[in-house]
Write a structure and sequence with these properties.
single chain, 287 residues, Diaminopimelate Epimerase, Chain A, domain 1, 2 domains, globular, isomerase activity, PhzF family phenazine biosynthesis protein, Phenazine_PhzF-like
């Protein structure tokens, strides 16, 4: 079986930045096990598989896999797959399409060179003691932003949001893999366990996402799902309206820019993230 595929850099202002994504077409006959093996082979943070296309209504169904497991929702795969569908698959480059993922349908829109998604309503889970982090990280008590809590948040995939005081603390951050994994396993409420550290400097967001995968400490270049959780967190605790850019990936030489546009009105969250994508390559995969 031969599968057409595209490689895209997502949340990237320029090629060879942002987060890499492989998008596989004509994947409806692949089993879950085959998709997982392909995602492990290509070894990007995520790969997507388009399993159904509705050209008349500009709709598609996709599945999302990391090298280790399937995801119910993930921002950079949805943004990148939408870029491929809009620019390479659907006719006339539509301004709006719909993607169906395991958590439901996601409305996608295009404005100039940005692709936007609107996230589901957030759930705010456990609040944690900042002192916990002193046992498995290089952080000191004074490195935390005192104004906000440390809290697990989900809009489909859960992340522990960790506010830090400044960029210096964020850049110097080091985690102990085994102790971090133990803490995540004991404390996270869902099967998706990850930490999203950020700081605010003059309304500019700088962030780092770290998790343990395949017994390795992994840092992600751009994390759309974590960005939707962070945006919800900021709307709840910082400001009921937000329009800014999240800077991620700079510390691993994959600079990423994730655009935020959100609002909290009478307990209803409007959470939108957007980004640019850069076309890198296309080819055929021998499955």
């Amino acid at each position: 079986m031969t599968l057409p595929f595209y490689i895209i850099d997502v949340f990237a202002e320029n090629k060879y930045a942002g987060n890499q994504l492989a998008v596989f077409l004509e994947a409806e006959n692949l089993s879950s096990e085959e998709m997982q093996r392909i995602a492990k082979e290509i070894n990007f943070a995520e790969s997507t598989f388009i399993t159904k296309l509705d050209f008349e209504n500009n709709r598609a169904e996709i599945r999302i896999f990391t090298p280790a497991s399937e995801m119910k929702f993930a921002g950079h795969p949805i943004i990148g797959t939408s870029w491929v569908l809009i620019h390479k698959i659907f006719k006339n480059e539509p301004d709006a399409i719909t993607l169906k993922v395991p958590i439901g349908e996601i409305a996608i829109r295009k404005t100039e060179d940005l692709i936007w998604l609107q996230a589901a309503q957030p759930e705010f889970l456990n609040v944690f003691d900042k002192e916990d982090f002193l046992s498995f990280s290089s952080l000191k008590s004074e490195d935390f932003e005192d104004q906000y809590p440390v809290q697990e948040v989900t809009t489909g995939s859960a992340f522990v949001i960790v506010p830090l005081k400044d960029q210096k603390a964020l850049e110097a951050l080091v985690l102990d893999k085994d102790k971090t994994n133990d803490w995540l396993m004991k404390n996270c409420q869902t099967n998706h366990r990850a930490l999203y550290f950020y700081c605010l400097e003059d309304s500019k967001i700088i962030s780092r996402m770290l998790c343990v995968e395949h017994n390795q400490l992994v840092e992600d270049a751009a994390t759309g799902s974590a960005s939707t959780c962070l945006q919800a967190f900021l709307l709840k605790y910082h400001s009921a309206k937000i329009e800014t850019i999240n800077h991620q990936g700079d510390f691993i030489n994959r600079p990423s820019r994730i655009y935020f546009k959100g609002e909290l009105t009478e307990n209803e969250y409007t959470i939108q993230i957007g980004g640019k994508s850069q076309f890198v390559a296309k080819g055929d995969w021998e499955a």
